């Protein structure tokens, strides 16, 4: 591998590396050869480097690296810059500018899987790893500076100068003097994935005698047809789904009917708030020419109301219904099976797949997640014991998965629906809209004994219009379970395109997740506006716009002020919007551009007047 070292003072660090097998060292410094050789021990280290076959280059500007190397020799696997400094008494602003130029220059030379190592004195970096930690404005803000050039901080560890044979730091205020490296940190940066390009995705299908097409909502373009539950997937949600199914099959006969479940439903779901669903307008038309196609979606259209199967409405010669919506739940599919009596009493029916819901932005609220729905018809009077058996089985499987992942030890508990009160999370609150709930399935941990809702249980004695049977259904949010078991703090990480995520789960093995993007920078912007007179402000639509404009780069939206103007009665709202990525580089300039775009969009789509 090719290793580039920048800003060498006396070349003692380079000399310590040059003997490593399979490593070609290119050691550089900013000074001329005559100036560098005058430093204590430098001449000896330079001779050692050259004798070992390493390259030594002088007068190298770390912000213009491309100019110093021929085209065929510009790719490096590692780039080291130990204790960079502008020299003399340069302040934090100038040193940030130095780092910014350095990282942009590295982007032109670093191999795709390469690493950039930057050692800084204690406190300079401005990350939580620094002890003590400086105030942000007084640090070099290294993670934010690197993000501007497309790099993320993937590791940070102590810089142990005493373990480097012959190493002696020098260059204090541009002099041949050493400086204190106690508590120094080595920051390891890697390339971030490129920003996603959200090109329109159109889907088409044949309904009756007419061809129809529709456009996938932009906020879901990167989440449709990801295949996380497919047979060849190693994603944690599939592992959890398969383990739960295997555990349940030990207690009940089991039938998996998840294949070919339609993504689209017709009309509007009864009882569900309109602002919580993704509406799709269908219209006759030709197949899109240049737009991206999604054949998997095109083949899975369904027309059904919640609780009412209406497949027969689509017939030859009938007009195509215009209004559809992306399924927010698998429950109507289960209800259709029940009404058709396409099941065997005592056999557990398992359905699974992604569902789509508009929701507010929080680390645990997701516009799409994988639902696992189990349905069981049992003899009347035995439903409570069956529910208990289901919960115990799920608990056993979860404990087994915890041992595999070595994450947070979960404890599944049943909570009466009436005892939850106003403490519902977004998942549980939406489930209430779908129909009456008997129990919430909560996962408690040592840190949070009360637990968070990850599932619901319903009993439907009237579904079968039978005096002998009762239908029990349990809905589980597989994404929330994966987050709890693998120690993932942000739902967006489950949907990352960065391959480093799935590499941590080889062949579906559950492990405790280790983030490859540490201490991502956050950027806070406020937006205030007048709400249209006499209208209720749709906060879910506001959050959904933020998701779409930022490409899921908004981590938090908080209401800061709700003001009503005396005399006119006009209402003004002020929100604080925090931009932060969990998996890729996000620079301050990009965040500022997102904020400006967001302001334009809310004015256009929500009818507000910006202040």
Automatic annotation (TrEMBL):
InterPro entries: aa-tRNA-synth_II/BPL/LPL, BMT5-like, Fdx_antiC-bd, Fdx_antiC-bd_sf, SAM-dependent_MTases_sf. SMART domains: FDX-ACB. It catalyses: tRNA(Phe) + L-phenylalanine + ATP = L-phenylalanyl-tRNA(Phe) + AMP + diphosphate + H(+). Residues 518-611 form the FDX-ACB domain. It holds the Pfam family BMT5-like. Keywords: Aminoacyl-tRNA synthetase, ATP-binding, Ligase, Mitochondrion, Nucleotide-binding, Protein biosynthesis, Transit peptide. One of its GO terms (biological process) is translation. GO terms for molecular function: ATP binding; phenylalanine-tRNA ligase activity; rRNA (uridine-N3-)-methyltransferase activity. Its EC number is 6.1.1.20. This is phenylalanine--tRNA ligase.
